[in-house]
Amino acid sequence: MVSSDEQPLVHDIRLSTVGPGRVTGQDVVHEPTNMDQAMKLHYLRGVYYFKSQAVQGLTTSKIKESIFTWLNNFYHTCGGFRRAESGRPYIKCNDCGARFIEAQCVKTLDEWLQLEKDDDGSLRRMLVSNQVVGPELFFSPLVLLQITWFKCGGMSVGLSWAHVLGDAFSAADFMNSLGQVMAGHQLAQPLKLAQSHISAKISPSPPKSKDPLSVKRVGPVGDHWIAANNSKMKAFSFNLTSTQISHFHTKVCGQIGTNQIPFFECLCAVIWKVVAKIRDGPEPKMVTISKNDPHGRKNGILSNGQLISIVKADFSIMEANPKELAELVLNQAMDERSTIVEAVERDQGLSDLIVYGANLTFVDLEEADFYGLELKAQKPAYVGYTIDGVGDGGVVLLLPGPKDGPHNGGKVVTLIMPEDQVLKLKFELKKEFSIA
User: Fold this and answer.
1) Separation of alpha carbons 249 and 241, rounded Å
2) Residue 403 DSSP code
3) What is the pTM of this model?
4) pLDDT, tens only, 152-189
5) Which of 128, 148, 295, 373 to pair with 312, CA 20 to 30 A apart?
6) How far is C-alpha 70 from the chain's CA centre?
């Protein structure tokens, strides 16, 4: 904590609004898909850290000038939500603008990153907005950008992204295109909006269908798009070097052979077992898996195209062999996307659902190009992403590590769990696998 007579770590915070440099036109709207609507209570918070060489000579006015051009291609991200007569939310494009936040930090970039190593995520939250949509939809920005200047050079770019706009892969593409504009490149193609909502075929008198197993109903939340939790959630992260990853793989799968199980599935197995061990009550016999679907993603389209599936076990998780669990995750995942779409369609887009944390949820973001945002041809020194709006089941994120330096080839694991479980989780992960 900072005493009253000391300067806050992050200070001189200034707020403004940015938007497309071109007029979008009257009454241009975008209707989020049913899958987009299912994700509306979740938010992505990303922070990109750049060293002084990457931002030398860069000013706020130059950044804003690029943003005005950049948002010409992404005008619906500057919209505000309205409701149709049916109550279904839609976006009136370029109506609200994106928020631009500028701040100063009393620490150098290296000092800050060192502080973050022993932090619970509260420091990083100073570098990115935690705003949610509502309670006034009309005035709620969907995108908030925060530029924080560090002492002696260096800068962070914080992205607050309403998940209703698209998944983490879309958010990464969105940010990477800013780097292209700042480098003077013209974006390859204008924004394409995902098709209006996906229609599900429903019989004239359908029976009452069960909800997808990967989601949980909450609320109703009305126009304030955040769900209440029974537990206070806390985040923590750990880094894995390429050597640690290799040892971890061998521990779970045995000696590396031709039928190697991917690292993500091995990580799921290990943490699934640990959570089953430390949680009170019945074991979690079902988990949710979220990962990229390259076949369902089209260039230039922002959407929630991630694969969402569930994995069920009919045996004891604590007594299971980690390799057995990893193979279950790899081979027995059941795609839930069509049932999620149907559930939202039945509710005419009025569903209040959570996906992350409805069950213990594992999210594979290894393929997200978080290090594709370049300034002066320099990649970020580090990129961190987390999710807000996570349910009590908790979430585990697997992210790519830095692309340059000693940590090249590594990975970052971030867990968002009920606060009363975090110490036990850290202890078990460190004791058994030396990874936290």
Assistant:
1) 12
2) S
3) 0.93
4) 899 999 999 999 999 999 999 999 999 999 999 888 76
5) 295
6) 21
